[in-house]
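Module 6 notes. Inverse folding takes a fixed backbone as the condition and produces residue identities as the prediction. Think of it as a translation problem where the source language is geometry and the target language is the twenty amino acids. Below is one complete input and output pair. Work through it position by position during the lab.
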């Protein structure tokens, strides 16, 4: 790197005011992991746009981040809405976080409608937002896209056909776009979290649909992942500290996918 460029990079790291004009878009940022990501990116100096199905909540959450951040109503599966969200600022960072869960029914009872819906939100949504925000990034010759995959896309979780296929598809799309845009200054990476301790996971546990002690024992670090830990990995991949990383699927899983032994991975 030329000395002048290196100096500019150091100044940008040391002087937050030089970073004020960087914009980040977080889909599904009104809840859970997405809001933790929005918070981490705001703390890193980005102007954050939260685009969510629930526009009122997106606006309220953006206001929590402080003045200058914005919340938008956006269904990422709708082409016109995806285009409008992408056009709302010159985004340096896109986080494709919005997602929905599976029915958790046995395969023989699963409907093709809910299967298609899960694929639509995760795959078509991630594709559309990446295409539209990526268009500006490619024109400007710079940008970083971070997708939300999951251990469900890297391993086999019974009854989660659509969700697992969607998250594996997101990993494949991450690699494909990363290779296509690598020469254009746009990096594309993904994080693959294990079970994250969100309000939804706690609700599923209370309803008896998730067994938290068993999950903890299955995880080498002996606990569930925190939303802030996913957000920290996303903020790292967004930053220039990750300038040499593209096409990576980074597990944020406390060792879940590394573990291949029999029995429990930890005392929980
Ligand atoms: N929670 C976990 O344990 C876990 C683990 C691995 C990966 N993930 C992934 O992380 C992401 C966030 O998960 P979460 O648990 O925080 O979910 P969540 O349900 O708490 O929040 C998802 C947000 O996405 C929004 N959304 C849903 N469909 C949308 C659409 N069509 N357009 C725009 N916004 C939409 C919702 O309104 C909501 O605000 C998802 O992609 C999920 O698959 C979650």
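Target side of the pair, the amino acids:
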């Amino acid at each position: 790197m030329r000395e002048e460029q290196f100096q500019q990079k150091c100044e940008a790291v040391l002087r937050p005011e030089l970073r004020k004009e960087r914009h980040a878009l977080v889909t599904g940022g009104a809840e859970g992991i997405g809001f933790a990501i929005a918070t981490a990116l705001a703390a890193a100096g980005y102007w954050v746009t939260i685009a969510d199905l629930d526009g009122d909540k997106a606006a309220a959450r953006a206001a929590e981040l402080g003045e200058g951040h914005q919340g938008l109503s956006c269904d990422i599966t709708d082409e016109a809405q995806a285009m409008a969200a992408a056009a709302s600022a010159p985004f340096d960072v896109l986080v494709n976080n919005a997602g929905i869960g599976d029915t958790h029914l046995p395969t023989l009872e699963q409907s093709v409608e809910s299967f298609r819906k899960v694929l639509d939100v995760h795959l078509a949504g991630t594709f559309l937002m990446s295409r539209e925000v990526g268009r500006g990034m490619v024109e400007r010759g710079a940008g970083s896209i971070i997708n939300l995959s999951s251990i469900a896309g890297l391993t086999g979780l019974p009854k989660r056909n659509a969700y697992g296929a969607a998250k594996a598809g997101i990993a494949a799309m991450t690699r494909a776009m990363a290779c296509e845009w690598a020469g254009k200054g746009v990096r594309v990476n993904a994080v693959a979290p294990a079970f994250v301790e969100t309000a939804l996971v706690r609700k599923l546990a209370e309803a008896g649909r998730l067994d938290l002690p068993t999950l903890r024992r299955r995880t080498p670090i002996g606990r569930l992942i925190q939303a802030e830990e996913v957000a920290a990995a996303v903020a790292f991949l967004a930053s220039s500290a990750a300038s040499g990383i593209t096409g990576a699927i980074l597990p944020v899983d406390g060792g879940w996918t590394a573990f291949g032994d029999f029995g429990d991975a930890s005392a929980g």
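Reference fact for the lab report: Residues 3-196+226-253 form a domain with the Rossmann fold fold (CATH 3.40.50.720).
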